[in-house]
Amino acid sequence: MHRKFTDKIQSFTFVVPALVIFLFVIIIPFLRGINIAFTDWNGINNTYNYVGLKNLFSIFHDDEILQPFGNTIFFTVVTLFFVNFFGLTLAVMLNKTFKSSNLIKTFIFMPMVVSLVLTSYMWVYVFNDFGTRFFGISSPLSSASTVMIGLSIMSIWKETGLAMVIYYAALKTVPKELMEAAQIDGANSIQKFIKITIPFMAPAFAYCIPLWLGLGLRQFDYSFVATNGGPGTSSMTMAMYIYQYEFPFYKTGYAQMVALVFLIFILIVTYIVTAILKRKEIEI
Amino acid sequence: MKIIRALILWFITIIFLFPFYFAILYAFKTPVEIANNPISFPTRLNLKNFADAIQLPGYMKGLMNSTVTATIVVVAVVIVTSMASYKIVRIDNWFYNSLYYFFQFSILLPFQVIMYPLYNQLKIFHMLNKLPTLMIVQTGILIGFYSFFYSCFIKTVPLELEEASRIDGCTQYGTFFKVVFPLLKPVTVTTIILVALASWNDFIVPMLFMQKESVRTLPLIQFYLFGQYAQYVNIAFAAVILSMIPILVLYFIFQKYIVSGIIVGAIKG
Prior knowledge:
The complex is a heterodimer. Chain A is mainly alpha-helical. Chain A folds into 2 domains: about 1-50, no CATH class; about 55-284, MetI-like (MetI-like fold). Chain A is built from 11 helices and no strands. Chain A is globular, with a radius of gyration of 24 Å. Chain B has 2 domains: about 1-45, no CATH class; about 55-230 and about 240-270, MetI-like (MetI-like fold, Orthogonal Bundle). Chain B contains 13 helices and no strands. Classes of the chains: A mainly alpha, B mainly alpha. At the A-B interface, helix 1, helix 3, helix 4, helix 5 and helix 6 of A face helix 1, helix 4, helix 5, helix 6 and helix 7 of B.
């Protein structure tokens, strides 16, 4: 009996460090954030009043939120599609091995290891000093109507390598015998791709699609570093919108409510997408 | 057909490498050369930019801060999450099962949701502008994903060895560190690299909590550099290239593990 009890205590000590740090950094701020969302706190004063659901209703009267919300959706859809499309295409092209395929993989993955700050600055100068000077294309970042496209290009450049590596690994799980059998049965390469390759890729899709969904919806750094939300507020995303209410504006109560609603939105979207992918995975 | 495919692939690769080419070129040129023709080669290797970059105020300090932070965060994440994940996978009761989902939840959490309450909390405890704070916060943020990562792998480790070592009278710590932890080496190597990358490149956490110049990390210094040295882009790029070297070296040495580790999480998870 005694032995069992000390055993349990010892087991528990294994999770204590992770639990303590996690509580301090994530859970306590999260719970306090929920509390703040129902107040008019400005983030500085010691006093605040509970205002019930007022902050929640304000969101629906806040016209300025539409643009960051639209931008976030645009960025998410564009990067989700192109990162996965390019990643998959490159993986398929590289799958038929030739001499330099490893080198190519290394190079295309390389942007993944540099910081977002550096990525942003490199592209600012590529757009301005190269695009504009040599091709007369004005930098997409300088105009309100194209700035989100510019930011999407940066993100696609940086992250395609990761998608490629994952899809490449998934392609390697397709049994060669199956492909050969289909070949003998007279299937063409498109039929083979749809009937054999895609089903074996299901786990990779089920990983990649929610990953870029989450990354896109939470996007902050590109907008913040490359354009600071500008020109004007044209490249503001939801994450940045929340940020500006916290820091320069000090409307902490309202910001926390927006953040909370946004979190619920992310959870619902991710849940739906994951559920659909799971069902497809089983169907296949 | 094969040649066309190779050509297309190399063309795409060159497009991917172009921004790097641009940054490296700028780092070697003088401002005059940049103004004259941005994409031409420099007339001579202008190493002065790099010398100037090292002497930028706070640059060496930033390099130190980033190195120390990344090292300690790596050690902390590896030890803390591997230990926790081990028990989470091995013990099947409500407490440990819910811990698994508890940690997972943070993977989806946008940082903005906890940003201000955390800032305020750190202010109350007088923890702002201190490097250990940065380490704790980064570790906390990374626990979610890497406990998932370790859990996926521990599930594949057979139980027999652990049982044998328990019968031999090892304590639970002994069993874990002498028997289990060495078996986790593949996932640990990947974690080391990915966490080092995440910590080294992290921008938003130091930006919020490490405002004082003496505790700034490299991404922050880069961020302010391009603001302050707009007319000396060459020096700014030299500084950035220098700070990119350690991470690229790490990448070229360990890329096999980075890739295989990501796959453990993606395909087998």
